[in-house]
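Input chain follows. Return structure tokens only.
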Amino acid sequence: MKVLIIIALLLNLFIFIESSNPTIIEITLDNAGTTEYTTQCGQYTQFKVNFPYPCKDLNITTYPTQGETDIFVSLTNEYPKKTDLSWAATATGEYTVSISHWEPESSTGYYYISVYGDCSLQPYPAKYTIAATSYDNTDQDSNDLVQYPSVGINQITGANDYRYFRFCVPQCSDIKVTLQNCLSDAECPGAYSYPELLVTRNIVEPTVYDYTFKLAQIVRRYIRINITDPSARDSNGRNTGTYYVGVYGWCTPDEYVNNNSTDGPCSYISNVLFNVTVTLFQQPAAKCNAPLTLPPEPNYPQLTSGLTYPGYVACNKIQYYSIPVPSPCYDLNIFVTTTSDAEVSAAELAVGKYPVVRPTFANLEWTSYDWAVQNLTISAWDPNFDGGYICGPNGDSLCYIYIGVVGYCGINDSSPFEYDITATLTRSRRIYGKPQINQKISAHGTNFYEFCVDHEADITAQLLAWNSACDCPNTYSDLNMVISKTSFDANANNLVWHIDTSDVGYKQIQLLDTDSDTRPGTYYVNVIGDCSDTCTDSCTCAPCANLENSEYALLVNETSATVSNSQVLLEENYNSNRATYLGSSCGESSTVCSSTCTITESTSSSSSTKSISTTAIVLLAVLLGGGGIIILAVILYFFFSADRKGKYNRRPSNAS
């Protein structure tokens, strides 16, 4: 009984130790670090650096003199760990995290850094200095319209195709993006068109169907973005930083052209030159830092999913509706048919979300580019689509999509006209709860997946594969996996959740409900075919040739409450699922790599010894009475401080 009491007290003590926030050491940007720090095996040392440059990149580098460091960096989490959302450098010999200002998630402010003592290959505490440096990463090839205005001059786009640009705003500014080209066949015979201009903060290559600032008309040929517009701020509330620009070669297919002088035939597009330019109107910094004025939530007529409603709208007016989105795991389709003469008048769409409560063609919007019949689908995986109770002025109200039906009228028609509107929400969860089996991947390739979580829960993504050369010498692999909230093509160098490589042989990522960076919504899962092209010992370096014979399965689901907080049960669950979806074994001889697998036996022996030693320590504490608790706590803390990484689970530096 006394042993149980001691163990309970120790558990509380460890919980207290783990929950106590360690000191965060502030380092100076662009100052060569001279102080040497020591991080024990399996432990973290925390740093932070203030980064004030929205148009520069950031490098965070450790310079080890002993041992191995892993680096984890976050803008939102003061104590990022290897299981958290972070930028990271974890490969052997990799000591720099590079964060580009062109990444949508980057921003100014404090970056929080955790340096982890990785003892998987070298059983020594890490000793190192650390430095954070800023540097310019803009050249003419970056298509930066502010730094290199000439990149937007005399450009051409293909028919219904895109040209992409970007720019960075270094100081608090109002912004004007202008698109210039010939709009008249009389002035430019055979060389006029009506291209579309798109500007966004978080979509690197926007399309006309994305949530962007648009022209959406012929008369106005510029987009104005003011610092007072809350919808134009980045995810960290900044007006400064990166903006992404697209020019779309809108045109009428030649087979549908009635008048070459007015319809903008696609055959003309290759003859049309355009200029896209950016003008910045600098404002006092205090204006950008001032609290934004957020609009109240409107009370528009509310649509019910799947029902059709008749309506009418006057020329150049907008009739607004709303539809509640109870969960982020829905696709939304908006279908509008005009019942008047489509040759003269048509109902068009301008669709927004809070704080764009009155979407028009002059602000951030989704819209359809159809004529007469408007058919717009907004995917759950659109990075700007929200659902659940995360909207409104305080971020805790039910989300609505605001739908504006715009009365577009021809020259000879000025009377109101009628239309029908239907908005339909369709459940969309992709691979959530649906095992992806018999999957294969090419060397250094990436397979892309998506899932959506509609409620608060712990989620586990398991990459089920044969990870051990000891058991599967010809089919084992060292695949990687990352999860992103924002980027469909994210890799291990981006802001992602990573596999915890301390889980020997268990390739899985757990998203905890208690993590401030998780919330119900959509996620991207990317499986990466890491392997070695120059492998000389196939038993230790995961040769690329193995991938030809290797399959994997991917399982994303809610973590059972009985499993969630137990590492042992998580690993048992992994093994059970692997047996279910891959089979009980890979069917290979386990003797091929037996000479290199003795580490497994020694590790097992070491674990047994550690278990026996632990029992002895507990008994000693019982004999010593109350004072033994403190002794036991200290001994066990250092006894188990070594990281549990295994030889075959460390990501090799030659795997890309």
